[in-house]
């Protein structure tokens, strides 16, 4: 399997990363170019591209646009094998370990395996944990799974632990796009404590305070989509916040 040495793979404990989620359904060429220009002047580590349901036919065009205008790695965040695109750099191979739907635990992966194996995509095997954020999200409905209870950090920790023991190399705690409430600090800390692999956190991060709470609790990567679509300036705010953590890390080395 060829590896392109993306930064997610070369994870350094303590270093914080910022992923901007680009949902093809919510972008056109102009809004995408605006985000690419903002990202070029701030620290953005990855573009996650995808969504739980993509109704537009423009994912390929969006990825092409990113590749033409940016060097930031594009990582697919797919909800099915239909969303695999060889133009990207990598893919979160998500196993929905908070759910009990075999299609999202292994089914889609079987269909995708020969396509992925033949591709140049860097594969990130990821234990995906959907957390109940107060309202039913597209991800929960479309996957036909019950999200993990919001106030049960111990269940999240044991789920993450099981994922790591099964060999998954990343844990993604997600409240779902536009989540009413972000994942709690208690849950992030419990998961961070339970596993050694990088912990990705997203869903409902719409203030720098919420981003800081997630980072302080132990998130290695934070993902922001919705609020940046509504307020592109938020990209700069989160990027500056992330940079402040990484500067402190370098100073203490
Ligand atoms: C959703 O974690 C991502 O899967 C990002 O969520 O769109 O709420 O930022 P938001």
UniProtKB/TrEMBL annotation:
One of its GO terms (molecular function) is heptaprenylglyceryl phosphate synthase activity. The keyword Lipid metabolism applies. HAMAP family: GGGP_HepGP_synthase. GO terms for biological process: glycerophospholipid biosynthetic process. Sn-glycerol 1-phosphate binds at residues 172-178, 203-204, 225-226. It catalyses: sn-glycerol 1-phosphate + (2E,6E,10E)-geranylgeranyl diphosphate = sn-3-O-(geranylgeranyl)glycerol 1-phosphate + diphosphate. Its EC number is 2.5.1.41. Belongs to the GGGP/HepGP synthase family. Group II subfamily. Keywords: Lipid biosynthesis, Lipid metabolism, Magnesium, Metal-binding, Phospholipid biosynthesis, Phospholipid metabolism, Transferase. It comes from the Bacteria. GO terms for cellular component: cytoplasm. Its cofactor is Mg(2+). It comes from Pontibacter cellulosilyticus. Mg(2+) binds at residues 23, 52. This is Geranylgeranylglyceryl phosphate synthase. SUPFAM superfamilies: FMN-linked oxidoreductases. Pfam families: PcrB. Prenyltransferase that catalyzes the transfer of the geranylgeranyl moiety of geranylgeranyl diphosphate (GGPP) to the C3 hydroxyl of sn-glycerol-1-phosphate (G1P).
């Amino acid at each position: 399997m060829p590896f392109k040495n993306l930064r997610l793979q070369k994870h350094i404990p303590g270093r914080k990363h910022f992923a901007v989620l680009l949902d093809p359904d919510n972008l056109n060429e102009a809004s995408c170019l605006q985000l690419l220009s903002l990202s070029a002047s701030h620290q953005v580590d990855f573009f996650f591209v995808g969504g739980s349901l993509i109704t537009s036919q423009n994912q390929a065009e969006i990825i092409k646009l990113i590749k033409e205008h940016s060097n930031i790695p594009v990582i697919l965040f797919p909800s099915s094998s239909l969303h695999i695109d060889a133009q990207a750099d990598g893919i979160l191979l998500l196993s929905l370990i908070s759910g009990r739907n075999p299609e999202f635990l292994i089914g889609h992966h079987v269909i995708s395996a020969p396509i992925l194996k033949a591709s140049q995509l860097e594969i990130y095997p990821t234990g995906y944990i959907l957390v109940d954020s107060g309202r039913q999200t597209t991800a929960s409905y479309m996957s036909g799974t019950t999200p993990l209870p919001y106030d049960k950090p111990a269940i999240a920790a044991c789920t993450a632990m099981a994922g790591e023991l099964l060999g998954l190399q990343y844990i993604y705690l997600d409240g779902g796009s536009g989540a009413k409430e972000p994942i709690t600090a208690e849950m992030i800390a419990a998961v961070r404590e339970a596993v050694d692999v990088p912990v990705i956190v997203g869903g409902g991060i719409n203030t720098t305070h919420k981003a800081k709470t997630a980072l302080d609790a132990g998130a290695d990567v934070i993902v922001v989509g919705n609020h940046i679509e509504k307020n592109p300036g938020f990209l700069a705010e989160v990027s500056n916040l992330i940079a402040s953590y990484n500067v402190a890390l370098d100073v203490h080395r």
